[in-house]
Amino acid sequence: MAANNIDEVVDGLAGIVRDSVRDADRAGYFAALYRQVTVEVRRGIHTGLFDDGPRMDRFDTLFGNRYFDAYDAWRRDRTGPRCWREAFGLLHDPDTIIVQHLMLGVNAHINLDLAISAADTSPGEAIHALKRDFLLINDILARAVLAVQGAVGSVSPYLWLLDKFGGRTDEQILDFSIRRSRQEAWDNALLLAGQSGARRERTIDLLDARAALLARLIARPGGLVRPAIQLIQSTENKDVSTVIEHLDRALDGPPSP
Questions:
Q1: Predicted TM-score of the model (pTM)
Q2: Is the pLDDT of residue 113 over 70?
Q3: Are 33 and 105 in contact (CB under 8 A)?
Q4: Coil, strand, or helix at residue 54?
Q5: In 116-132, which positions are buried (b, 16+ CB within 10 angstroms) versus exposed (e)?
Q6: Among residues 48, 62, 54, 31, which one has the least CA distance to residue 136?
C-alpha cells in the first residue's frame, strides 16, 4: 500500500488494525499505537500547531509509507529492513510480551525510518527549518504513549516488573525509549540531509544494522529482566484480537478494567 497524504496513512493503519483483529495478528499492537499517534499529528496540522502544516503532512506521509513498505515486504516474501524483520519475525512468538512488540515497532520506525523521512522531507539546509515541528511531535508521542501504556497495564497486570527490574523506576518504559530515540533520530536526520548516493545508502545501512541490534536486545534482554518478562507473559491477556481493540481505544478515554 502507498499513501498520498496523512488521511491515507490513517486509513491504511486502520486497515491493518482491522485485519489484525480479524486474524488475531500481533502486528495490530504497534499499528494501533501508530494509528493513534498519526491521528493526533493530523489534529495538530488542522489546528495550526505546526509551523508548516503542508510540510508536516508530507513528512508524515513519507514516514507512514516507510512502515507500509516494510509491512508489505515482510508479508510478501519476508524481506525489508533488518530491524523490521526482527520486529515482524517475533509476531508469532508466544513468549514476546505486548510491550516488547510495541517497543520493537517503535525502535524500527524511529531509529531507522524517522531520520530518513525527515531528510527526504527537507533535504540539505532546509532540514534546519523542520526542527521545531519535528520536536513538537515529542509532546504528541508522550500523550499517546502514556495512554497506550496505561491500556497495556490493563491487559498486562505485571508490567510494572519491567520498571522494577529494568532500572527505570521513575520513567514510563515506552516514553523513555521514544524520547531518547527521537533525539538521536534528529541528529541522524541532519546527517542524512547533507548526504546523497552511496554515502547516504551506507549511513542508512548502518542505522538499520544498529536498530536491528537494538531489536535483538529488546527481544532477548538479559539479567533480571528475562525472568520478569516470563512472569509478565504468564499473566497477560492471551486474546490477541481483544488486546488490539483495547489498545486501539487507548486515546478515547481511561483504560477499561
A1: 0.90
A2: yes
A3: yes
A4: helix
A5: bbbbbbbeeeebeebee
A6: 48
Q: What is the pLDDT of residues 19-60, one digit of tens each?
A: 999 999 999 999 999 999 999 999 999 999 999 999 999 999
Residue with grid cell 503542508, as numbered in its chain = 54
Largest CA distance in the chain: 52
> What is the distance between the alpha carbons of residues 49 and 60, in angstroms, rounded to a whole number?
14
Give residue for cell 504497534: 30
Q: What angle do CA 67, 69, 75 make, to 5 degrees?
A: 100
- What is the C-alpha separation between 52 and 172, in angstroms, rounded? 30
Pick from 88, 64, 54: nearest CA to 15: 64
Q: Locate 256 and state its grid cell.
A: 477499561
Q: Three cell numbers at 27? A: 502486528
Query: The C-alpha cell of 18 is what?
Result: 482491522
**How many alpha carbons lie under 13 Å from residue 33 in its C-beta half-sphere?**
31
Structure-block grid coordinates of residue 244: 488490539
Q: Can you say how many angstroms the Cα of residue 170 is from the centroid of all Cα atoms in its chain? A: 22
The 3-class SS string of 32-43 reads HHHHHHHHHHHH
What is the sign, positive or negative, of the torsion defined by CA atoms of 250, 107, 178, 163? Answer: positive
What letter represents residue 114's amino acid?
L
> What number is the average pLDDT over the span 121-143?
90
Phi-psi region of 220 (alpha: psi -120 to 50; beta: other; left: phi over 0): beta
Give the residue extent of every domain in the chain.
Answer: 6-252
**Cβ(56)–Cβ(41) below 8 Å:** yes
